[in-house]
């Protein structure tokens, strides 16, 4: 269903831009922007819902609401200036969505107003996610969701899984407000996230990471301490950019070996980026 929809979208895009003719380099950037706009409009037309923006990895859907109903807005408890919201909601994954949202906040005039991590992963060992962007203008909310959806393929790059569990590693050289809200990451500093399921593997990865490099531990989360009873151990940390990457690489190396001992070789969901 998703593949058919995207094929229709791209077919329509190609029709509107002239069947994929060669474009001069100075016009390539503008054409790409135009293609994204056309794809967004086409996707809305196919689904038939104006709130729909798109879908991406981890069964994640992006939505916008131009004017939140006043009673719902009050219960949400957000600043009244945010008439519009962007909604980034996934069944599988929390870290990838938060990191993608972090990039979206950097690139748009929006703020993160809600981050909630439900017990999910479609019956697996981890979380799903609900992230809400606040915006004064619906175009800003829509753009934030578009940026986050596009970046999600990258942030799923260092998520590895098999039938026995999953591993996740996230890195940014400059944490922004999504990482700060979700993980208390210092804004503007390098930030790392390690997740391991089952929880025992997460613990060993955490120990390995902290021994491998001089980083500052921000938090340690376990099934009944800060998590939604998921079978995971999670750590977050900051420090020098090189040290944060070194810690992540050490944890990834041992984590893949341990999870691989329980089943098939853990595979990346997309393309590793760390």
TrEMBL record:
Chief location category: other
Pfam families assigned: BMC
Cellular component, GO, one term: bacterial microcompartment
PROSITE patterns the record matches: BMC_CP
UniProt subcellular location: Bacterial microcompartment
Record-annotated BMC circularly permuted domain positions: 48-164
Keywords: Bacterial microcompartment
Gene3D superfamilies: 3.30.70.1710
GO MF term list: structural molecule activity
InterPro entries in the record: BMC_CP, BMC_dom, CcmK-like_sf, EutL_PduB, PduB
Superkingdom, natural source: Bacteria
Ribosomal protein keyword on record: no
Family annotation (CDD domains): BMC_PduB_repeat1, BMC_PduB_repeat2
SUPFAM superfamilies per the UniProt record, alphabetical: CcmK-like
Protein name as catalogued: Ethanolamine utilization protein
Originating species: Acetomicrobium mobile (strain ATCC BAA-54 / DSM 13181 / JCM 12221 / NGA)
């Amino acid at each position: 269903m998703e593949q058919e929809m995207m094929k229709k979208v791209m077919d329509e895009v190609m029709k509107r831009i002239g069947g994929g003719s060669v474009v001069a380099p100075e016009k390539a950037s503008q054409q790409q922007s135009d293609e994204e706009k056309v794809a967004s409009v086409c996707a809305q037309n196919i689904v038939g819902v104006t709130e729909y923006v798109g879908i991406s990895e981890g069964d994640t859907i992006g939505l916008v609401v131009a004017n939140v109903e006043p009673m719902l807005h009050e219960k949400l408890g957000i600043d009244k200036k945010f008439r519009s919201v962007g909604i980034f909601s996934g069944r599988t994954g929390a870290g990838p969505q938060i990191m993608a949202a972090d990039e979206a906040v950097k690139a748009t005039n929006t703020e993160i107003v809600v981050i909630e991590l439900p017990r999910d992963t479609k019956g697996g060992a981890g979380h799903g996610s609900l992230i809400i962007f606040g915006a004064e203008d619906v175009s800003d909310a829509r753009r934030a969701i578009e940026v986050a959806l596009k970046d999600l393929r990258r942030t799923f790059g260092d998520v590895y899984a098999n039938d026995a569990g999953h591993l996740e590693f996230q890195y940014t050289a400059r944490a922004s407000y999504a990482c700060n809200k979700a993980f208390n990451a210092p804004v503007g500093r390098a930030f790392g996230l390690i997740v391991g399921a089952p929880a025992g593997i997460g613990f060993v990865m955490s120990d390995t990471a902290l021994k491998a490099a001089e980083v500052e531990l921000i938090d340690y989360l376990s099934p009944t301490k800060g998590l939604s009873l998921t079978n995971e151990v999670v750590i977050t940390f900051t420090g020098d950019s090189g040290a944060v990457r070194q810690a992540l690489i050490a944890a990834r190396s041992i984590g893949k070996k341990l999870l691989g001992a329980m089943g098939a070789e853990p595979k990346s969901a997309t393309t590793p980026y760390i």
